[in-house]
Amino acid sequence: MASGKTHDYHILPPSPWPIIGSVSAVLMTAGLAFWWHDALWGKWVAVLGTLGVLFTMFSWWTDVRHEANSGDHTPVVQLHHRYGMLLFIASEVMFFVAWFWAFFNAALFPPAGDAVGGVWPPKGIEPLDPFVYPLLNTLILLLSGTTVTWAHHALIHGDREGLKKGLWLTIALGVLFSGLQAYEYAHAEFGFSGNIYGATFFMATGFHGFHVIVGTIFLAVCLWRAYQGDFTPRQHFGFEAAAWYWHFVDVVWLFLFLSIYIWGSDFGRAAVPYFG
Description:
The protein has 7 helices and no strands. By secondary structure, it is mainly α. The longest helix has 34 residues, at 75-108.
């Protein structure tokens, strides 16, 4: 009986991380739910679950890195990783479609009651000026798209110093974006609760901001791996996935800037066709 490997697929050995990650996720979400309902012990359950999730992420990704460096990620396996990442980004697109749908539903059909008054933005809401911090953040993200592309091309051509410099710049721009968005939120004249404008605005832009933070961490891990000597011109899917994710974040922001910040603000009020 032949004992050698006769295919290009990577058969995973038994791993404890799926069950540990699942239990940790349940503890985290259940703990948060009980904590928010004034059960003080829920806080400690949430902390325990969060630590378990972070430990699972670190350990699981360490195993994946070891598999990549051991030659387990054959061209066939890498191709399927790309399919998986594309499907993940497609699911994220649909995630944001829900927030855009909620915003446009409220903007195109503003209720005539006292809370909204049949106009958009609702009565009493002072939208943020789209041509101050939102425009600056747009330029920052567009610039970050060029720096991550520079890093990618440097890696393909064997320029590891260019790879590191491009990643450093992209990470710095991501941190700058998050800082400016936090400042913008702190100075917004409307809150999350109590009005449909604030709810749709903060849900859409806030989840995008969360994705920027995740993407920044993703790229920071790639930078650390670059310093560890990982990635070659022929095998660097970990970095490629991070770059795809970052470009996705860029594109979503452009739609947010054009629709929520400009079209849905006082600036675009005269051009909004109301159907309510």
